[in-house]
Amino acid sequence: MKPFYIRIPEGSSLRLQEAVARYLRWDAERARERVLAGGVWSGKKRLLDPSAPVAGSLLTVYPDGKKRSLYTPLDPEWILYRDDSLLVVYKPPNWAVHPTPIEKGSLLTALREAFPEESLFPGNRIDLEAHGLVFFPRSRKGAEIFNLLIRERKIEKFYLALTPHMGNPPGSLRFTNPLEGKEAETRGRYLGETAQGSLFEVKIGTGRFHQIRKHFALNLSPLLGEKKYGGGAPSGGELALLCYRYRWSYPGSEEVQDVSFIPPRLKEWKALLTRGEVGSE
After folding, report:
1. Which of 38, 88, 146, 223 is most buried (CB neighbours < 10 A)?
2. Per-residue b/e over 158-185, b at no fewer than 16 CB within 10 Å?
3. What is the rounded distance in angstroms from the CA atom of residue 131 to the CA atom of residue 263?
4. pLDDT tens for residues 20-31?
5. Which CATH number fits domain 154-253+260-281: 3.60.9.10, 3.30.429.10, 3.30.2350.10, 3.40.50.280?
6. Which one is predicted more confidently, 40 or 144?
7. What would the pLDDT profile of 198-246 be if each residue is shown by its tens digit?
């Protein structure tokens, strides 16, 4: 399907989602989903914030999402941690971590454009539809250190997961269903209700494929936006799963590195994340 072109007048007070919905006569949910899926561009820049002002812009809207594979420049605010060995970077929803035969643009592509002098390697991966923190070793030595941290399970991983509203959510969670024929443990605690659903903080001790998504679908409820395991309710085109925090110590060091990030648009989530953490109940 051919793209739509929208010229927004100077001085317009419309935000991106509102503009797409109004000019294309779409409902708000469809417009938001197209933005978050990477289908709206201004020139060579992909627009991913539904609330961004767009006065004076010429918008290109790809209704079938084919434009998503093109490169988008890196937002400097996504660089959250940097030392001699590792970068920790925020991955938005519907961004690939590294290029694939289908998805040529990726977070790694953007990082290599931003830091051409670096020998960056992809570290861990998170699901395309999810968002959150990703490690990128800065050298082969950094990759060796990162792989050692993974093998020895030295990196603590914390997530925020949103389900549809639950009438009587459990205060704490511990799921141990084997996955891929191997042990798997997911622990969590209930944080409270947002306008969209029930929010949980989650910590995983193992890293099985789609572990949190599978464990929630098997034991509690599919996450909002879940399309693969149990058909969760819509969530604006993204999976309501955020890898928001890592904590680790390097071999031979007692100093703890603690990196966390919650996107500003998720103010409700941040407000519910009070003192304490999974396992400290």
Report:
1. 223
2. bbbbbbeeeeebeeebebeeebeeeebe
3. 10
4. 999 999 999 889
5. 3.30.2350.10
6. 144
7. 999 999 988 899 999 999 999 999 999 898 887 655 555 679 999 999 9
Domain ranges across the chain? 4-67, 71-152, 154-253+260-281
Residues 6+ apart with CB under 8 A from 184: 175, 176, 177, 178, 206, 208, 211, 215
pTM of structure: 0.73
Q: 107 exposed, middle or buried (CB, 10 Å; 0-12, 13-18, 19+)?
A: buried
pLDDT given at position 62: 84
Q: What's the token pair of residue 181?
A: 């024929």
Contacts of 145 by beta carbon, 8 Å cutoff, 6+ apart: 85, 86, 137, 250, 251
157 confidence band (pLDDT: 50, 70, 90): very high
- Give the distance, in angstroms, between the CA of residue 238 and the centroid of all CA atoms in the same chain: 9
Nearest to 42 by CA among 79, 5, 17, 87: 5
